[in-house]
Design goal:
Order of helices and strands: HHHHEEEHEHEHEHEHH
Distance between the termini: 19 Å
Oligomer: single chain
Radius of gyration: 21 Å
Shape: elongated
Helix content: 40-55%
Structural class: alpha/beta
Strand content: 5-15%
Strand order of the largest sheet: 5-4-1-6-7
Number of helices: 10
Largest sheet: 5 strands, parallel
Number of strands: 7
Length: about 250
């Protein structure tokens, strides 16, 4: 509950709405103007492409993809980029974070590990079936279906990995999510070697980004607002997990 409340309050739109409502309730004119100005500032900064890039890269560039020589005993793909194949979807539906599944399949194809483990309550079996549909051997793909969040992923997987004699994994998740995921796995699984394999980079470093393209990203946009909202989810999540002692 506390986590959900913090996320709601720190969402740029929610924060701006709260400040705007507060400005209508107070009677003192200077304070009212100050709250209204603060609401406008939150909206402008919360939808600014430059701000979004700085905040998102602050998460994404903490971990980089491994080189092709890295080997492990298993590839662990965290859920979070998939939608259930409800009618009329022909199969599992992938959003931007669905790169996790595709990257996990590529790592397997390149010989990084002989096994892929999908984890996530309600979705992991569908993730595994999707990987089999992509051509991975059925016997090489397994699923863990009891985990509802990042903390659950680590806590539930650790004994399963240990029981299977797995001491080294490649951890696949979105680049923005990787700092929190790595922190949780290192705390919950101290005997497990976790190699980060991030994907789904929302703000890659593009050498061709020049003016006037960079100037345009300064203007408010829904794309930037969505990016900042997602990044705030991770920053708040990291702080909350640290408060709970999970990092």
């Amino acid at each position: 509950m506390l986590y959900a409340v913090l996320l709601a309050l720190l969402n740029p739109l929610s924060a701006a709405l709260g400040l705007g409502l507060a400005s209508r309730l107070v009677r003192r004119r200077p304070l009212r103007r100050g709250l209204a100005a603060a609401a406008l500032t939150v909206v402008l900064l919360g939808s600014n492409g430059w701000v979004a890039t700085a905040i998102i890269r602050g998460l994404e560039l903490q971990y980089l993809p491994p080189d092709g020589s890295v080997k492990a005993q298993a590839i662990v793909v965290l859920s979070g980029g998939e939608r259930m194949p409800f009618w009329p979807r022909p199969s599992l539906d992938l959003n931007d974070a669905g790169d996790r599944l595709i990257y996990g399949a590529l790592l397997y194809r390149h010989g990084a590990a002989p096994r892929v483990i999908c984890t996530g309550a309600g979705i992991a079996r569908n993730m595994a079936a999707f990987l089999v549909d992509l051509g991975l051997p059925r016997e090489a793909v397994t699923s863990e279906t009891a985990s509802f969040d990042t903390h659950d992923h680590a806590v539930n997987l650790c004994p399963l990995l240990k029981g299977d004699g797995i001491s080294r994994i490649l951890l696949v998740t979105s680049a923005t999510h990787m700092p929190r995921a790595m922190g949780v796995f290192r705390k919950a699984c101290p005997d497990l070697t976790v190699v980060p394999a991030p994907t789904d980079y929302r703000r890659p470093v593009n050498p061709d980004d020049r003016w006037p393209g960079q100037a345009i990203t300064f203007l408010p946009s829904v794309y930037a607002l969505a990016g900042i909202t997602e990044a705030m989810h991770e920053y708040v999540g990291y702080a909350y997990y640290r408060l709970r002692g999970w990092l």
